[in-house]
Amino acid sequence: MTPLLAGGTIGRLIRDSYFWVGINKSRPMQEWALLNQLHSEGFPVPQPAAVNIRRFGMTYRANIITLELPNTETLADRLIQAPLAPEIWQRIGTTIGKFHLAGAYHADLNARNILVDDYNRIYLIDWDRGRLRSSPSAWRWKNVKRLQRSLRKIASFSYLNFSSNDIDAFLAGYNSGKRS
């Protein structure tokens, strides 16, 4: 079960509460619908199971419940243990590239929202504020840059087995879908 938390200055004031805008426009229902669509189309995301919304007057608190992805760990945790083979970086790039080609925008693409399982399959989690975008634009490259910033930020706080060669392998995988 993942609690949804507000970010920024407002988030520090209201913690895990949101202004009520109706059930269909609520963040957990939008995330559930997106996850359900992506999962049904075969994308590697957790299968949504339920949404828990508790309304308090003009605000609400919520959780989204997804099925567990067994034997997975975050990309960040994996990189603390050991470097990844270039083939895994390519697989990560290919996976994210497929999401992007389908118009799936992940609002918080970072090394903690990418899971790798025991068979090196890649999953994207935490789709809060994610959405499907119909037109290709610069958002795809900005999303990739966000992931790169995340890796560099984590590397500045702890030892990560991460290099510029990894970015090259990632980009090779990411761009491979554009040719097929």
From TrEMBL:
Gene Ontology molecular-function annotations: kinase activity
UniProt keyword annotation of Kinase present: yes
Gene3D superfamilies linked: Transferase(Phosphotransferase) domain 1 (1.10.510.10)
Source domain of life: Bacteria
Keywords for this protein: Kinase, Transferase
Name the UniProt record assigns to this protein: 3-deoxy-D-manno-octulosonic acid kinase
Native source organism of the sequence: Alkalilimnicola ehrlichii
